[in-house]
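We modelled the chain as a single entity of 105 amino acids. Its sequence is:
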Amino acid sequence: MPEKNGSGATLSNVALNRITIPVLLIQHRDDPCSEAGPNGAAAYPRLLTSSPRVAFLVAKGGTDDGTSRACGGGNNYHSFYGIRDQVVRDAIRWLNGENLTRIED
């Protein structure tokens, strides 16, 4: 079971090497969250050794309205505020077999 932090579960204690299904990780370039930000999230793909397909997409664009916590709330980079539709479209494209490397508005 994932360890909980102040805003929810984290991947820190998950046995990522035991995941055997395709995995798509999406992170925002400007996300200040210590778990999901550029420094934390970039480590996860190499730990998914049993997954047949792994992608790590970096999103940019959108905005942060300044009213939410870094890792919580809905109007910031962590939640892809301003680019959610594009993130969903690109996730669907990946699920349909396309190889993507970044998401931009």
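As a brief sanity check on the tokenised model: The first strand starts at residue 4 and ends at 5. The radius of gyration is 14 Å.
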